[in-house]
Amino acid sequence: xxxxxxxxxxxxxxxxxxxxxxxxxxxxxxxxxxxxxxxxxxxxxxxxxxxxxxxxxxxxxxxxxxxxxxxxxxxxxxxxxxxxxxxxxxxxxxxxxxxxxxxxxxxxxxxxxxxxxxxxxxxxxxxxxxxxxxxxxxxxxxxxxxxxxxxxxxxxxxxxxxxxxxxxxxxxxxxxxxxxxxxxxxxxxxxxxxxxxxxxxxxxxxxxxxxxxxxxxxxxxxxxxxxxxxxxxxxxxxxxxxxxxxxxxxxxxxxxxxxxxxxxxxxxxxxxxxxxxxxxxxxxxxxxxxxxxxxxxxxxxxxxxxxxxxxxxxxxxxxxxxxxxxxxxxxxxxxxxxxxxxxxx
Length: 345
Ligand code: MRU
Fold this sequence. Notes:
Mean pLDDT: 97
CATH architecture of the largest domain: 3-Layer(aba) Sandwich
Number of strands: 16
Order of helices and strands: EEEHHHHHEHEHEHEEEHEEHEEEEEH
Bound molecules: 5-S-methyl-1-O-phosphono-5-thio-D-ribulose
Distance between the termini: 34 Å
CATH superfamily of the largest domain: Translation initiation factor eif-2b, domain 2
Low-confidence stretches: none
Strand order of the largest sheet: 6-5-4-7-10-15-16
CATH topology of the largest domain: Rossmann fold
């Protein structure tokens, strides 16, 4: 069973505090929207699909705090909450898709009372949660077919149970392949600056008893050159209409390396990670993070305090570098602009 990273519990949102892993498995209980917003911003809860669920549950926290029966004021209150949650992190489109779905409830039921709307919002948030669980399993099924026997797989960041409501996207493929008794081992890129690979993916894969080797990000090229990587599997935070895919900074490096060394590069992501409103990855907003994340390591300073820092949290992989995108609706192959359109539009 995957570890539940986010739950709605007795009117609160209970999340694993991922900033504490792998040393401590601690939980945060968010009783109000502000606490949840902070948990998203500081990456206590993270990963695109989990952010979608967190956003939906955040709307419930906001709705619950509204104490009158004035429907008009309630609708404007919920819309403000959605706007506020939307300021937490800009890149993962799952967060915005979930907020749109929650607001859709308000327009879909123009005559319902505040009490009824609260219950409809709750239903919608749980639908988003359950849907994420379902699609993880479907992507796992499709993706496992691409795991060849005795293969050596590389991954970056954390696209596992900690990043979703179930067992993950890229790591979901590996869990599903393991269930089918396929033999493989995994190279995990540490993922500087915040080490989601080292702290979270290595932790998850070891718990699942999957053969795991941790590498520093700058070791990937050397491994590929030695012919020791058979495939790369990553998640995504936002995929444009042409297949360009934003994911954790460093993913693009791996895609370029994979192309050069003739290694297949797979992106695993649900429909909720596609942003069909944008034609290409150039329009994907890239989150810039504080310089402290780069000038320190494990809480210790590692650079001159006043050095200038560039710290984008994500990069965009050109669709021409992607071998296939695994979704819950099946595997999409190039040409991506035409095949994404066929699949989702
Ligand atoms: O900054 P993070 O840790 O939220 O970044 C997460 C990623 O880049 C994941 O690879 C992505 O969200 C896919 S998660 C299934």
